[in-house]
Design brief:
Largest sheet: 5 strands, mixed
Bound molecules: zinc ion
Low-confidence stretches: none
Distance between the termini: 43 Å
Oligomer: single chain
Number of strands: 13
Helix content: 25-40%
Structural class: alpha+beta
Radius of gyration: 24 Å
Strand content: 15-25%
Strand order of the largest sheet: 3-4-6-5-7
CATH superfamily of the largest domain: Zn peptidases
Length: 292
């Protein structure tokens, strides 16, 4: 397998679909379509042609000696100003894998999939195409979505030949595949591998996420005349909880993470003891029992 060719293709894609600020392949838009068209040209050069499933995911099949299939995935869509490797590394590494086998039939069938709208950057709903294929997409959760320019998701989908109410047919299409394994080469999105000086890691699980919102109600009062011993300051209480949230993750194991990312204080005035504090907590862990 030629890493050199994969990188050359990634650079070619970036030249075509990125600005100096990064990749601009927002799902369902013209640059994303152009990226897919470019990729379809690459496929044509090795005699392969993609088909779209009902959710707009683009599939390419290289038949093997058996119909048992290895699915290799990625996504060509990007966030605005996205990285040059996110998603496209998976697609172009998969392309290279297919290219290697165009002249001698692989033992297993190889299927490449370019998931549609994996990032969710435009309609604030990530994993749209893959969740339809996995069957977990709830159509009514996304039916009303509108992008920041006022375009409705249903219209953006239709522009790309996808009918919202038929998207879950992609689930049946995926189930019809005699799949042995799913592989995806993805750029690391955190600093852990680099910190450990490791070139590659294998995903052992996918984290579940629990989001909670906490409201603490205290007693708002003037900062000057209120003696410390008579105060009921919810922000001081919250600050102790923040320390506890951090300790929960640190004491659990190396994988657990917990984050307080949003805090709002009422009335948020310099000379007033707050009356109410609302904050978010984001817990993540691959084991559902630990999260619970
Ligand atoms: Zn990605």
């Amino acid at each position: 397998m030629s890493a050199h060719d994969v990188i050359a293709n990634l650079k070619e894609l970036a030249t075509r679909t990125a600005t100096p600020d990064g990749a601009q392949r927002l799902a369902w838009g013209p640059v994303w379509r152009d990226a897919r068209e470019w990729f379809n040209g690459k496929l044509a050069s090795i005699g392969l042609e993609p088909t779209l499933d009902a959710a707009g995911n683009s599939w390419v099949t290289l038949p093997g000696q058996s119909d048992r299939a290895v699915i290799i995935g990625g996504h060509l869509d990007s966030v605005p100003n996205g990285g040059w490797l996110d998603g496209s590394l998976g697609v172009l590494a998969a392309f290279e894998a297919l290219r290697m086998f165009t002249h001698h039939r692989p033992r297993l069938t190889l299927k490449l999939v370019d998931w549609a709208d994996e990032e969710g950057a435009r309609f604030s709903r990530s994993l749209l195409g893959s969740s339809a294929a996995s069957g977990s997409l709830k159509l009514d959760d996304v039916r009303h979505l509108v992008d920041k320019d006022g375009t409705r998701l249903v219209d953006a989908l239709r522009e790309n030949g996808v009918v919202l109410d038929r998207m879950l047919d992609a689930h049946d299409q995926l189930r019809a595949v005699n799949a042995a394994a799913y592989l995806e080469l993805h750029i690391e999105q955190g600093p852990a591998l680099e910190d450990a000086n490791q070139p590659v890691g294998v995903v052992g699980g996918i984290v579940g996420i629990t989001w909670i919102e906490v409201t603490i109600t205290g007693q708002s009062d003037h900062a000057g005349p209120s003696p410390m011993r008579l105060r009921r300051d919810p922000l001081v209480a919250a600050s102790e909880i923040f320390q506890g949230v951090e300790r929960i993750a640190i004491m659990e194991d190396e994988i657990a993470v917990a984050t307080v990312g949003r805090v709002s204080v009422e009335p948020n005035v310099i000379n007033t003891i707050p009356g109410t504090v609302v904050f978010s907590v984001d817990f993540r862990h691959p084991d559902g029992e630990v999260l619970a």
